[in-house]
Design brief:
single chain; mainly alpha; about 0% strand; binds iron/sulfur cluster; binds zinc ion
Length: about 130
């Protein structure tokens, strides 16, 4: 699991397969993450999550949450969960959700198969 398991946009970094990043709020991030408008905006507003913003969902965030990337479609339900039940419960639920149903290993968004052999119900990479 990544040291920083989520972003303020509601993405669960714990299920992101990028090896060169320790999660949105960690020290080890790439240039894209460093400059991400949602990360910068929440930081400037002193907010933990976009769902606590009075402008939520702003048009930029709404467009991003509905673009072609299936993992972005998790953001809106994630933010609603965080708003209603809090971050601790959400993280617990996410940690459980992103496990192989057969062996319990951690899995990531676009992973088709677990090393144990189990086929996974993964997102499809868009064209
Ligand atoms: S989209 Fe931006 S705020 Fe969300 S996890 Fe990625 S870098 Fe962080
Ligand atoms: S929802 Fe609010 S905090 Fe999040 S990116 Fe939009 S304006 Fe910034
Ligand atoms: Zn497995």
């Amino acid at each position: 699991m990544k040291p920083s398991p989520y972003g303020p946009c509601g993405l669960f970094c714990g299920a992101c397969g990028a090896d060169d990043c320790d999660g949105c709020l960690s020290e080890r991030i790439d240039e894209y993450v460093r400059q991400c408008r949602f990360r910068v905006c929440t930081r400037n507003k002193g907010l933990d999550f976009c769902c606590h913003c009075e402008d939520y969902p702003c048009s930029d965030l709404a467009a991003f949450m509905g673009d072609k990337w299936p993992h972005h479609w998790t953001m809106e339900p994630n933010l609603e969960f965080i708003r209603s039940q809090g971050v601790a419960q959400w993280l617990e639920a996410q940690r459980r959700e992103w496990l192989c149903p057969k062996c319990g290993a951690e899995i990531v968004w676009y992973q088709k198969q677990c090393p144990c052999g189990q086929e996974l119900d993964a997102f499809e990479v868009p064209e």
